[in-house]
Protein 1
Amino acid sequence: MFSRPRSYWKLILYVILTLVCFVLQSVPAFGVRFLGCAPSLLLLLAVGIAFFESPAFAAWFGLIAGVLSQLTTSTLVGSDAILFMFAGYILGVLLETIFQRKFIVYLFAALAITLLQQIAAYLAHLLLFERLPLGSAIIHQILPTFFFTGLFAFPIYWILWRFDLKLRAKEELE
């Protein structure tokens, strides 16, 4: 998964970041809303973990983040967990083979997965329940979530990058 000396600090960091993102995403009192929509902070965190860890760890983390995200959304049970898990694993494999670990790749991957999540949730609700017309759903749900998630992409990536850089430097000194 990851090297032993920095693994404990990374796990503690990931748990703290996961809890902070979960609270910010799920509690409306904190005011992290745009047009009534919350950003997918746990998705951004799961995609960010795929950039700094192995595909297997990213998949497990994506599964846990997806389960937590599922607690705050009204999508099909397990859909976020499966989406986050596969996104973490596939992105981790693509980063090891094809893509470079750059912020622009992170941003495009996070936004593409967010868009996929929102469209899949709309289609699932359309099939199972009565849902808003497509135009109204795009304007009131999909686009605000898409853009608001994009705004939070840089801070989450920067936090993960800085801690990874700091822990790698400590590891090299030891």
Protein 2
Amino acid sequence: MNILTGINTGIIKSPDAVLALALKMQSVLIAETLMYLPPDRVQDLVFAVFCGYRRLQMVFREDPESIRARTIADTERLNNRTLSVTLDEIQNPNVALRVTDFVMKYRQDRVTFLFFLQNEEVISVDLTVTQMEFLLNLLLATIHKTGDAAFVSLALQANDFIPFYTVDFANIGSSGVNYNKFNVPTWKFSAFSDFYSLVMIQEDGGIPCGAIIKALPELEPSRIKAIGELLVNNNPLLAPYRQRTLAFACEKIAPEVREEEMEKLLRAHIQHRVTKMSPSTC
């Protein structure tokens, strides 16, 4: 195992935006490695760390005393091995060390982070679940310190769900539904097991659009609204509805439906829309 033994971060900014996160790591088999994550790869990393943190919460419920002790010990070890990110590494980043792709792999007692670099090198680092609290706190502090609202939103707003489809019902009576499938990597889809139908409801009871997502169990109503607004405001297919007043309703799709069964997912979504439609708009 190539367990993480030290880590630190830095931020590369222009006057207008965050350009990259500098990430320096040390592990059992690697003395020290530096890489640069553009904003979309930062979101991937944060998503993975949140997944790891949720696993930490699960094992904590099973054995709180042991997991608490191990988490405290791992936090102290990582705190004591803070690596130095130099000013030169921030001001003169090496493009060859840019992260072009990221993958997380689940193991029985740990996770593996794979960083694919511009120079075609692949950096593999293992992390125990009891290291996740430290890593999450480090990333959250770094992200908030940037003061860049757009970067903070990108990194933090979509870590408890995955968009699968957005759906436009404008022509459902003639040419049928129009949908957009998201290109999401397999490792992210495996993070959640539950599919949900999310419909957007107008003030007159009409439902012009919706989405199919995978998410954590028992989504809170406030979170459903936030996810709906995020999709409407950022997905081109839903752009015509951004200026409308919308409410959001969510329903879990039958667990036996799998992600490759597109027709079944869309059929369940359409049925959800029908049940939520106002009689005057049917």
